[in-house]
Amino acid sequence: MKPLASSNGFTYRCPLDCPFRKRCFIIKVAEELKSPLTVLHKCCVIKRDISITIGDNSTD
Question: How does pLDDT run across 40-59, given as a tens digit for each residue?
Fold first, then answer.
């Protein structure tokens, strides 16, 4: 997943297909992640924790 770059860091958003077409915020970091990081994210649509890998430099 590619992060969204801004002047104050990189923002990672949920890459999953959402029935509500949301792109939920996951994490904001100062530098782009160089290696994969798996995080648990509380999905507001399905109301449970989901495992998402960010920083793997793959496309959405």
Answer: 999 888 889 999 888 876 54
List C-alpha distances in Å: 50 to 5, 8, 34, 38, 39: 24, 27, 22, 10, 8
The pTM (predicted TM-score) of the whole model is: 0.72
Cβ contact 28:45 at 8 Å: no
Q: Residue 13's closest CA among 59, 58, 57, 54?
A: 54
Residues 6+ apart with CB under 8 A from 6: none
Tokens coding 15 = 């890459």
Report which secondary-structure segment, H or E, holds 30.
none
3 token code pair:
């992060």
What is the rounded distance in angstroms from the CA atom of residue 47 to the CA atom of residue 3?
A: 24
